Amino acid sequence: MRKANFISGLIKNLTIRFFNKLEPLNGLLQKKGYVIFKNKINISKCKSIDLNLISELVSIVINNHTIQKTIKDYICFPRLDQIRLLKSPRVKYTPQCEWHHDSVGHRIKIYIGLDEILNKNVYTEIVESSNFNSYFDYNITRLVLTEEEHLSKKIKCNIKLGDVFIFDTNMIHRGVYSKDEVRNVIELEFSSFFRGKIIPGKVGYKKNRERNLLDKRELTEKLILDKRSRDFLKHCFFF
Ligand SMILES: [Fe+2]
Question: Which DSSP category does 224 fall into?
Fold first, then answer.
């Protein structure tokens, strides 16, 4: 418990410094489709990722008013769909490794890194500024890049403990995995209350997206949120 407090204290200081520098977070997200906060402090000797550490990391992100405002400005009636632990598969290939969008319109995913060591072989790759591409058929999600997209800047988003990666899954992205290594993240997912009502995408309805969900009741008890953040989450229909 002491160890978790110490580590998240470091991350908290660092994250607040990042966020203060990035007031126009929404502008960045609109323009590029993603934002990444790299944790420059070397946090070592974190032996176990327990619910205490996870709750503290989630609290830091949810308590951030810039992030709250960004989500509210970006998503029409945002809803927090789920918080889960995501472990990348130990494979070289899955359909997620092909360029795709998630077929559910604008949806924000926030990954909070949990690995002490930066794993260079497992990452999310994105086509910068592809978040406002419109897709006429949301049932066809796997894409062959257009010539323009081939020329667009590709970003490899590696994250480790304390890094925060925010992106719109409407942008073109893919997962790069490894048979030998895994990437562990906390994933928070925000989409519009209207998702599924006006957009016929099916990716978001796959059964396997329910796996590794963090227990809502346990998590709620552990989260240390200020009133504004609690109201924000209530507004997001999660609690
Ligand atoms: Fe995806």
Answer: -
For residue 59, the CA-to-ligand 1 centroid distance in Å is: 25
Count CB neighbours of 59 within 10 A: 19
Q: In 3-state terms, what secondary structure has residue 217?
A: helix
Ligand 1 center from residue 9 Cα (angstroms):
31
Check pLDDT > 80 for residue 231. Answer: yes
Q: In whole angstroms, what is the distance from residue 26 CA to residue 42 CA?
A: 28
What type of residue is 226?
Answer: D
Distance (Å) from CA 227 to ligand 1 centroid: 33
Structural domain range at position 128? 2-235
Residues 93-116 have pLDDT tens digits of 988 899 998 888 889 999 999 998
Distance between CA atoms of residues 95 and 229, nearest Å = 36
Ligand 1 centroid to Cα of residue 176, in Å, is 11
Domain count, the chain: 1
CA gyration radius, the chain:
17
Q: For the chain, give me the number of helices (H) and strands (E)?
A: 7, 8
Tokens of 85: 């632990």
Ligand 1: distance of its center to the CA of 14 in Å? 28
Give the C-alpha separation, 216 to 228, whole Å.
19
Q: What is the pTM of this model?
A: 0.86
Calculate mean pLDDT across residues 13-25: 61
Class of residue 215 by CB neighbours under 10 A (exposed 0-12, middle 13-18, buried 19+): exposed
**Gap from CA of 101 to ligand 1 centroid (Å):** 6
CATH code, 109: 2.60.120
